[in-house]
Amino acid sequence: QPKKQPPDADDLTSDSVQSISVNTLFLLSTTVDRMNNVLWPYLLEFVTPIQFTNALTPLCKSLMYLAMKKQEEGENASLIRYDLNANIPSPYALTTRLLVVSSQPYVGDCRVMASLRLLHVLHYSVHPALDQLWSKQVPLLVEHIEG
């Protein structure tokens, strides 16, 4: 007769799969140089769909790292090439999604912080005129929420 598993065995399995997936995504984003071109800007496609809300924290962290790496390489002005990537959400969709998520500071696992930080890194790609405003305001929001 097969052994009966405890009722929450499936939950443990899905939690461990989620943890492994999150760690793998972050490791690929931060340690494998050639993955930059594969993951950027492809991961942006997963920011706006509602069904990926629970994945936003690791997604935003990986995207933020990739964006900062591109900026260090001198690609600041054109982080997101909308003309080359038809599936990427528009700057308006990205901004709206990240701001809506940021409006709920006590929901999710640091989702607000990750969303605001990604928004801060992508400010020039959303609209060049946001540079000065977001350079001041977004860090203040992050500081306020952390404090």
Automatic annotation (TrEMBL):
This is Maestro heat-like repeat-containing protein family member 1. InterPro entries: HEAT_MROH2B-like, Maestro_heat-like_prot. One of its GO terms (cellular component) is cytoplasm. It holds the Pfam family HEAT_Maestro_2. It comes from Balearica regulorum gibbericeps. It comes from the Eukaryota. Residues 2-147 form the MROH2B-like HEAT-repeats domain.
